Amino acid sequence: MYSNVDELFSKMTKRAKKSAIRELLKLTKKPGLISFAGGLPAPETFPSKELEDITREVLEKESALALQYGTTEGDDLLREQITLRYQKMGLKITKDNVAITTASQQALDFLGRVFINEGDVVIVEFPSYLGALQAFNAFGAKPIGIESDELGMSPVLLEKKLAELKAQGIRPKFMYIIPDFQNPSGVTMPASRRKEIIEVAHKYEILIVEDSPYRELRFEGEPQPTLYELDDRGTTIMLGTFSKTFVPGFRTGWIIADPLILDKFITTKQSVDLCTPAFVQRIAARYMERGLFDAKLNDIIKLYGHKKNIMMDAFKKYLPEGVTWTNPEGGLFLFVYLPEHMDSEKLFMKAVENNVAFVVGHVFYCDGVSGKNTMRINFSYCSDEQIVEGVKRLGKAIREYKD
Amino acid sequence: MYSNVDELFSKMTKRAKKSAIRELLKLTKKPGLISFAGGLPAPETFPSKELEDITREVLEKESALALQYGTTEGDDLLREQITLRYQKMGLKITKDNVAITTASQQALDFLGRVFINEGDVVIVEFPSYLGALQAFNAFGAKPIGIESDELGMSPVLLEKKLAELKAQGIRPKFMYIIPDFQNPSGVTMPASRRKEIIEVAHKYEILIVEDSPYRELRFEGEPQPTLYELDDRGTTIMLGTFSKTFVPGFRTGWIIADPLILDKFITTKQSVDLCTPAFVQRIAARYMERGLFDAKLNDIIKLYGHKKNIMMDAFKKYLPEGVTWTNPEGGLFLFVYLPEHMDSEKLFMKAVENNVAFVVGHVFYCDGVSGKNTMRINFSYCSDEQIVEGVKRLGKAIREYKD
Question: Which of A198, A302, B172, B236 could form a disulfide with B231, with the two C-beta atoms 3.0–4.6 Å apart?
Answer without folding.
Answer: B236
